Amino acid sequence: MTEAEWLESDDPYLLLDVQRTRANDQQLPPRARARFSSKQVGLWIVACCRQNEELMEGEGTRERAAVEWAERVLGSAIECAEAWEPSDADPYRMGAAAYRCLSVAHCVLGGDDAVAVSLAREALELLLDVDAEPYLLFCDLLRDIVGNPFRPVTFFPSWRTSTAVTLASQMYESREFGAMPILADALQDAGCDNADALDHCRGPGPHVRGCWVVDLVLGKE
After folding, report:
1. What is the extent of the structural domain holding 200?
2. Which pLDDT tens digit goes with each residue over 74-106?
3. Number of domains in the chain
4. 204: in domain
5. Fewest Cβ atoms nearer than 10 Å: which of 66, 102, 146, 162?
6. Residue 152 lies in a domain
């Protein structure tokens, strides 16, 4: 895959394969060996699950609780105190996509990246098995979380001002990302001249928890 294909593709399977197949290809130049982390893959599956209204319907459903648990784990990179009991994490008692989302988070915690990506692909297949298949939306969600793996951004600590951190924190906690253009202004005022970061903030989105610019501002690994 080329950088242009990454930016324009509407095939989420093709984008996911960048993580799995190209990172260790020594015949490719380093820039072409673009990859991203299994944690980012997990956050992407969370974001995709959240697009499914049936899956997320109701406050107390087992499916919604599984997705929200996975999001908390992946967002903090530490295991939450409230672990899931094996009887709760049962594919016959919750939606198959939510179960795989939960499993991806467990694999990321355990450092089993290959299995995490494999489970993410299974979750993706389940989420896309509907009448209106949101291929482009899912690609845009992954690009929001990963950014451009062919063009990594060096984020300078001086850009992490109190204003930028406050804006990023508020958006992260509320899942409301309407202030992204204001975040761009704050970063620019702090000396950020990276066009990819500024354009991403000022672009149309979508933006979700795990957005690569917000995570850089918050210092999330």
Report:
1. 157-218
2. 887 555 545 555 445 554 445 788 888 888 988
3. 2
4. yes
5. 162
6. no
